[in-house]
UniProtKB/TrEMBL annotation:
One Pfam short name: Ras
SUPFAM superfamilies: P-loop containing nucleoside triphosphate hydrolases (SSF52540)
Species: Exserohilum turcicum (strain 28A) (Northern leaf blight fungus)
Region of interest called Disordered, as start-end residue ranges on this chain: 190-227
Record protein name field: Ras-domain-containing protein
Compositionally biased tracts (Basic and acidic residues): 207-216
Membrane-crossing residue ranges in chain numbering: none
GO terms (BP aspect): signal transduction
Gene Ontology, cellular component aspect: membrane
Signal sequence, renumbered to the chain: none
GO molecular function annotations of the record: GTP binding; GTPase activity
Biased composition (Polar residues): 194-206
Keywords of this entry: GTP-binding, Nucleotide-binding
Length: 227
């Protein structure tokens, strides 16, 4: 598969918010009510989005505080981050601040080095438990918007917005890569020497023009002008 069609995604959030349930719903179409704290699990799955097959490499990470040091060391190179909170647990949204701080530092580092910044999407999970909701959708949306993240509410149990969430991430990664490729092409064009002669093509030197016309070579430096 084309390397451009490979996308790495890290799933992060507080313990018990449903990260593993979301991941397993996508990868295996499974859901379990049993809570088994994750240190770190990796999965891969292929999805066709907008007619294009993509190979998704997912890392389901630890939410417990005692394992968060491991998260920082191994998961900051992903193309995208899915930040999950539990709409029935008030503290789970606040817990995302820890992960967001590290992702923001990684974003700044990539921008400083001319690399594509990661895509971020916030997910309010367990939206099927409306009677137990303590975090309104508006609150989650505002939290995501102020941090320049996408936003969805999901239910791993009822398979609500699981496929849609990962499709959103893929589309945003693809768009970021497309824009970066366009910027690179523009920068390459801008770096070409500009001609001071209106009869020359952009990037063409006076000497090249007259070589094409069969005229004798002339010194490039003797014709170079600055504007």
């Amino acid at each position: 598969m084309d390397e451009n069609n490979r996308i790495t995604i890290t799933v992060c959030g507080d313990g018990g918010c449903g990260k593993s349930s979301i991941t397993l719903r996508l990868v295996r179409s499974q859901w379990t009510s049993e809570y088994d704290p994750t240190i770190e699990d990796s999965y891969s799955v292929t999805r066709t989005i907008d007619g294009v097959p993509y190979y998704l490499m997912l890392t389901d990470t630890a939410g417990q505080e005692e394992y968060r040091g491991l998260w920082a060391a191994s998961n900051l190179q992903s193309d995208a981050f899915l930040l999950v909170y539990d709409i029935t647990a008030a503290n789970s949204l606040d817990a995302l601040d820890y992960f967001m701080e590290m992702i923001d530092m990684e974003t700044d580092n990539r921008l400083d080095n001319g690399k594509i910044p990661p895509i971020k999407c916030v997910v309010g999970n367990k939206c099927d438990l409306q009677g137990q909701r303590v975090i309104e959708a508006k609150t989650g949306l505002e939290w995501a918007r102020t941090r320049k993240c996408g936003f969805m509410e999901t239910s791993a149990r009822e398979m609500v917005n699981i496929e849609e969430t990962f499709a959103l991430l893929v589309r945003r990664v693809v768009e970021a890569r497309r824009l970066a490729a366009g910027d690179s092409a523009i920068n390459r064009t801008a770096a070409m020497p500009l001609s001071s002669n209106p009869n020359l093509s952009p990037g063409q030197t006076y000497t090249e023009k007259h070589q094409d016309d069969g005229e004798p070579k002339q010194s490039f430096w003797s014709k170079l002008k600055c504007w």
